[in-house]
# Entry
Amino acid sequence: MIVPTMLDNKGTQILAKSLFKELRGNGYSPNQILGLTTELIDLVTQHLRDANAAAQRSAADDVRASA
# Structure
């Protein structure tokens, strides 16, 4: 198993290729894989938005607390 912190560019490529082969081998169509990929991107995007909003709220709270 690949440890997430050890994923470099090459590791990411290997993982993606392995996942693609696994999905295709289990009968997923290219369009289904594309749909899955789109959902993953949406989830990561939302996570980043949420994390950014939380960081901005925290920074604003810090400014208010130090004033």
Observations:
- The mean pLDDT is 89.
- The two ends are 49 Å apart (CA to CA).
- The first helix runs from residue 9 to 25.
- The CA atoms of residues 3 and 11 lie 10 Å apart.
